[in-house]
Amino acid sequence: MKSSTLPTAMRTCKVPKSITRSISCLRGKSYKSGTLHYSVLKGFQKPRLQLTCTDETFVLRSLADLDEGDTEVPELGEARIVVVTSGKGGVGKTTSSANLGMSIARLGYKVALIDADIGLRNLDLLLGLENRILYTAIDILEGECRLDQALIRDKRWKNLSLLSMSRNRQRYNVTRSHMEELTSAIISLGYQFILIDCPAGIDVGFINAISPAREALVVTTPEITSIRDADRVAGLLEANGIFNVKLLVNRVRPDMIARNDMMSVKDVQEMLGIPLLGAIPEDEQVIISTNRGEPLVLQKKLTLSGIAYENAARRLVGKQDYFVEMSPQGKGLLQKFTELWA
Ligand SMILES: Nc1ncnc2c1ncn2[C@@H]1O[C@H](COP(=O)(O)OP(=O)(O)OP(=O)(O)O)[C@@H](O)[C@H]1O
Ligand SMILES: [Mg+2]
Predict the structure, then answer these.
(1) Is the CB of 95 under 6 A from ligand 1?
(2) Residue 164: CB within 6 Å of ligand 1?
(3) CA distance linking residue 66 with residue 108, whole number of Å
(4) Which of 113, 115, 220, 303 has CA atoms 20 to 30 A from the CA of 197?
(5) Whose CA is nearest to atom 16 of ligand 1?
(6) Whose CA is nearest to atom 31 of ligand 1?
(7) What's the whole-model pTM score?
């Protein structure tokens, strides 16, 4: 996005001393306030400040580290049920579900994540909730527990809950009507967003996972195999009456795109013809955050992929219709990455 088209919420100017003083993570660091870009992202419960200085590795987030007690639930109207799917396995559905779910919850919405991977669940690990799951959706369907016992609340954000379909290696004949009953029951508890983490493939697990969804997020990497599977999935979604489909391109490597060794985000989007929700760079922090059970978007010092997930979440809830440019004056990785949209 060119500077001239930046929305008014984004400015480049001196960061007032009063602000920098209130950002604890800036204390003791050397920076030139005159070269900092900042954007006050409206729509979070409190104005949120993101800073990027001329050293692109120095991406900061603060002011906003939002106070849980302050949560004010935004209006949404009808609850939204979004399936996160891909066709090809291992492209980042679960990573994206965890980070988008957490970000949307941080925006104040009541979010339920459903791990629809029967027998191979792992969303609980990414959220650090694995030890708190006593019951699963299968226990509900078998009459062993109530829905509220199987919906596990996140410790950090109480408006985020996780429902795992099954224990690991467990088998059960879940049907489309089971999925629809479960999602209706979740909505009746006041949840505004349901994100369904779909298993890989296009067999019965996929069909069950998409059946209650009214919208879909197709995740792909910029690889031809993943794109072909994403295309196939997009066709199946349409055939099943899901027309509101958006694209998330994951594991983008700006250096490889620059060398012409990887398709750009724009190329991928044009090949698939699906509106773009976001692009997430390849980032070793994804692995670190997975191992820690702490989604990227919770990190104090956000990496580029964390910012990319936050922005995708904001676009998903309709709070942002532009791609945030946080590029400093120097041509760092951030700027190069932003240019790949063009
Ligand atoms: N942006 C990224 N940068 C680096 N590693 C990533 C990124 N996104 C995902 N990964 C890694 O890729 C692997 C697969 O991710 P994930 O489990 O989210 O994919 P999935 O589509 O849910 O897989 P499955 O189809 O098996 O359910 C994980 O090891 C994850 O850490
Ligand atoms: Mg997965």
Answers:
(1) yes
(2) no
(3) 10
(4) 303
(5) 92
(6) 287
(7) 0.78
Q: Dihedral of CA 36/58/336/9: which sign?
A: negative
**Enclosing H/E stretch for 193:** strand 193-197
Predicted confidence (pLDDT) per residue in 248-299, tens digit: 999 999 889 989 999 999 999 999 999 999 999 999 999 999 999 999 999 8
Domains, the chain, ranges and CATH? 74-299 (3.40.50.300)
* Lookup: tokens for 247: 């694209």
The two structure tokens encoding residue 213: 């969804």
Find out whether 123 and 96 touch, Cβ atoms under 8 Å: no
Question: Can you tell me which atom of ligand 1 is nearest the CA of 283?
Answer: 3
Q: Which residue has the tokens 């997930």?
A: 309
| Start-to-end C-alpha separation, the chain | 7
pLDDT at 173: 80
Burial 62-76 (b: 16+ CB within 10 A, else e): bbbebeeeebeeeee
Mutate to test the pocket of ligand 1, among 84, 85, 94, 96 (most ligand atoms within 8 A of CB): 94
What Cα–Cα distance (Å) separates residue 128 from each residue in 77, 125, 147, 289, 295? 30, 5, 20, 10, 9
| CA gap 112, 101 in Å, rounded | 8
287 in ligand 1 pocket by Cβ < 6 Å? Answer: yes
Share of the chain above pLDDT 70, in %: 70
Over the stretch 148-190, which tens digit does the pLDDT of each residue have? 999 999 989 999 999 999 876 667 788 899 999 999 999 999 9
**Dist. CA 219–CA 95, nearest whole Å:** 10
What mean pLDDT comes out for the span 234-241? 96
- Is the CB of 39 inside a 6 Å radius of any atom of ligand 1? no
